[in-house]
Amino acid sequence: xxxxxxxxxxxxxxxxxxxxxxxxxxxxxxxxxxxxxxxxxxxxxxxxxxxxxxxxxxxxxxxxxxxxxxxxxxxxxxxxxxxxxxxxxxxxxxxxxxxxxxxxxxxxxxxxxxxxxxxxxxxxxxxxxxxxxxxxxxxxxxxxxxxxxxxxxxxxxxxxxxxxxxxxxxxxxxxxxxxxxxxxxxxxxxxxxxxxxxxxxxxxxxxxxxxxxxxxxxxxxxxxxxxxxxxxxxxxxxxxxxxxxxxxxxxxxxxxxxxxxxxxxxxxxxxxxxxxxxxxxxxxxxxxxxxxxxxxxxxxxxxxxxxxxxxxxxxxxxxxxxxxxxxxxxxxxxxxxxxxxxxxxxxxxxxxxxxxxxxxxxxxx
Length: 365
Ligand code: SF4
Known about the structure:
By secondary structure, this protein is an alpha/beta fold. The chain has helices at 3-13, 79-92, 108-124, 142-151, 164-170, 176-187, 208-222, 248-262, 285-293, 305-308, 316-329, 335-340, 345-348, and strands at 24-25, 35-40, 43-51, 97-101, 131-135, 154-156, 196-202, 226-231, 298-299, 352-353. It has two domains: 3-274, Aldolase class I (TIM Barrel, Alpha-Beta Barrel), CATH 3.20.20.70; 295-364, Orthogonal Bundle (DNA polymerase, domain 1). The protein is 38% helix and 13% strand. The protein is elongated and about 75 Å long. The structure holds iron/sulfur cluster. The site of iron/sulfur cluster has 9 residues, from loops.
């Protein structure tokens, strides 16, 4: 098979791995897909996302690479071929990073050895010192994962499901604890400048509460940089091809809730009062949590940081602006002052008192 043909097949197959909440495919005239604008570390850059091989000996029911998917043209890169394709894209199409994932092939170690070889060629022969996201395959041995950590910026292994029971609905080959969680524990020991991330599929088998519980556990125990969520989409030829897709709004609400856990340090128990049958409400989770949990209006001049960031319309930066203003200049007495400090005043009004006054009542919501 021609190298361009392989590149088309393998970059197409890489689309199911998430490299950001808002990844967006770049249209280029290379004849290939697989180039995305995605957040890599602190900036948005062009990533080439590809599989090393789309052959897989596992049977994940949702996946077009699995043994259970009927209609699939198979392809695999030689390490030097992948390095050559990436080098061409880097030099000619301003691609700044590589997101390298793969099917398992005949076994995870053999495929991982090829992936490591490809990245080594990129680093040593083509002198590419930029961003490499290296996907760990379930069951890969410790020594190979460690070797990959020396040449990668960021690494990840997909959880796919929030617990063992849900994973067993989707795949009979992956063992949740040993194949995945143990590998995450190893990754958390390595010194990766981009840290580790993971991805969970959002399916009918799990509630939002299941997903957020696992997310919280992952952030606490493995210090993950990000958890990515991908709403289930049926793939033609797989055993789940006739299942309904999960709504994208569900994925978006999970990202909003994740933001509260990770960036605002909300505690999981704060969500308890807003779950309905284990699902997040249809509105913004921060607003729902404030409506459910606030039992009084917050005096904006007396509030500490933790109270301020729980008020709708106030984020971490604005909370700090308010605290500094009160400390240095005295009381806030007008909504206009709050507005100038970055508050979305209309959202905040029902939850706050300014100079002893309240304009909207909580019950008006
Ligand atoms: S291990 Fe990965 S590539 Fe293989 S079938 Fe499962 S999800 Fe697909």
